[in-house]
């Protein structure tokens, strides 16, 4: 896979192999996990104060939900614009979509980690991709999304 | 003149609102260090160095107080940090007596 920062500030992803393309397409779906553990992680209590926590659930959580959904929708639209060439798939992340990608990739990484009960130790594990092992795929997926996040962070610095 | 009790209650509420609150960011094993530093810069307006310092404090000590001030603004910052999926809470700041 080739990554290029364009003069216009976009990130071009070219020659994406089918396996990585599949992982990219999984971002919006993975990020929209309905696992209760994921929901707890996405919407943590803001304080020990029970009254504030209740207010937060009623007033802030819907806003956060809308923010997360909107990011996933932007990513989905970009993925629909992917083209398939002989050397692999290719797509572009425009500069004004980078925040949405950062958010959706983060949502997906956190969701995978929660669903698989990954902790500090798992996250620092050396990854040896084994397509027959779901845990190994999940760790690789987190690592791949993290790599893309790093690229997007660098472009914003 | 009749005694009026209400002002005492109001005074307490005002004092509660005026008391400083800390915005605390907690460590989590998934968020990238570079991403956390970027969020600090975007949400709290930190310089690159300050963002890096607080990010490292979160990473090594498990938490960092990233802002102290009025409750309303503290809630706003916590909401902004949550919208970037950082684990943030607000807690009353210890006050000198």
Describe the structure in your own words.
- The complex is a heterodimer of chains A (157) and B (97).
- Chain A has one domain (2-19, 28-156).
- Helices cover 62% and strands 12% of the residues of chain A.
- Chain A is built from six helices and four strands, in the order E-E-H-H-H-E-E-H-H-H.
- Chain A has helices at residues 18-31, 36-42, 50-80, 98-115, 120-123, 134-156, and strands spanning 2-5, 11-16, 83-85, 88-93.
- Chain B is α+β, with helices and mostly antiparallel strands.
- Chain B has one domain (29-97): Ribosomal Protein L30, Chain: A (2-Layer Sandwich).
- Helix content of chain B is 54%, strand content 20%.
- Chain B has a three-stranded antiparallel sheet with strand order 2-1-3.
- The relative contact order of chain B is 0.24.
- Residues 7-15 of chain B have low confidence and may be disordered.
- Chain A binds chain B through residues 41-48, 52, 60, 63-64, 67, 102-103, 106-107, 109-110, 113, 118-120, 122-123, 142, 146, 149-150, 153-154, 156-157, and chain B through 29-32, 34-35, 38, 48, 75, 78-79, 82-85, 87-91.
Summed up, the domain count of chain B is 1
Structural class call of chain A reads alpha+beta
What's the number of domains of chain A?
1
Please name the two chains that share the biggest interface, counting residues whose Cβ lies under 8 Å from a Cβ on the partner chain.
A-B, 33 and 20 residues
Helix content of chain B: 40-55%
Gyration radius of chain A, rounded: 17 Å
Q: Using the 3D structure, state the CATH architecture of chain B.
A: 2-Layer Sandwich
């Amino acid at each position: 896979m080739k990554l290029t920062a364009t003069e216009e500030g976009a990130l071009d992803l070219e020659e994406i192999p089918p396996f990585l393309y599949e992982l990219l397409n999984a971002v919006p779906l993975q990020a929209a996990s309905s696992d209760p553990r994921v929901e707890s992680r996405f919407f943590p209590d803001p304080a020990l104060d029970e009254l504030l926590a209740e207010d937060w659930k009623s007033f802030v959580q819907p806003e956060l939900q809308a923010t997360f959904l909107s990011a996933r929708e932007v990513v989905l639209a970009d993925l629909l614009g992917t083209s398939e060439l002989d050397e692999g798939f290719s797509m572009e992340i425009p500069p004004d979509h980078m925040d949405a990608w950062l958010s959706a990739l983060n949502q997906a990484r956190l969701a995978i980690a929660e669903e698989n009960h990954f902790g500090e130790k798992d996250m620092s594990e050396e990854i040896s991709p084994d397509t027959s092992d779901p845990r190994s795929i999940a760790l690789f997926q987190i690592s791949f999304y993290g790599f893309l996040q790093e690229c997007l962070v660098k472009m914003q610095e | 003149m009749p005694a009026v009790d209400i002002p005492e209650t109001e005074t307490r509420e005002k004092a509660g609102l005026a008391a400083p609150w800390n915005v605390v960011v907690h460590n989590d094993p998934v968020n990238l260090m570079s991403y956390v530093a970027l969020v600090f810069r975007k949400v709290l307006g930190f310089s690159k160095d300050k963002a890096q310092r607080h990010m490292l404090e979160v990473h090594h000590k498990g938490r960092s107080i990233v802002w102290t001030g009025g409750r309303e603004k503290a809630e706003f910052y916590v909401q902004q940090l949550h919208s970037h999926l950082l684990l943030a809470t607000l807690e009353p700041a210890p006050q000198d007596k």
